[in-house]
Task: inverse folding
């Protein structure tokens, strides 16, 4: 896979992850808790995405500008931060989990900022 195709594929996956995190966060705020299964499913998806990004890093390094490299790194760090946050919160009931919504929101905000910066650079290059 070429660097450009790989970049586009990973950006699509990061955008999808952003949507999943936003949905999870909205449900978490509304209910006050989430099921362990929902949390584990999102965590596994995020960790899988982080592994894909790590595996693609060598190809991406050659095709990205320095600013884009930083933005990709920050986006992946945000995903891994949210995944780690999803590991916490099991306190009272083994079937439900109370994840820290503030930490999730911080990770979502960082991911959004990184993706917006990447999108702005992409539009600037196209123009």
Result:
């Amino acid at each position: 896979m070429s660097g450009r195709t790989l970049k586009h594929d990973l950006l699509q996956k990061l955008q999808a992850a952003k949507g999943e995190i936003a949905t999870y966060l909205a449900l978490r705020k509304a209910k006050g808790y989430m099921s362990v299964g929902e949390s584990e499913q999102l965590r596994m998806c995020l960790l899988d995405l982080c592994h894909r990004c790590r595996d693609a890093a060598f190809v991406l390094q050659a095709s990205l500008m320095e600013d884009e490299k930083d933005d990709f790194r920050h986006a992946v760090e945000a995903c891994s931060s949210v995944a780690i946050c999803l590991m916490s919160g099991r306190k009272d009931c083994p079937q439900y989990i109370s994840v820290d919504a503030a930490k999730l929101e911080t990770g979502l905000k960082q991911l959004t900022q990184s993706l917006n910066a990447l999108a702005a650079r992409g539009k600037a290059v196209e123009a």
The first helix runs from residue 3 to 31.
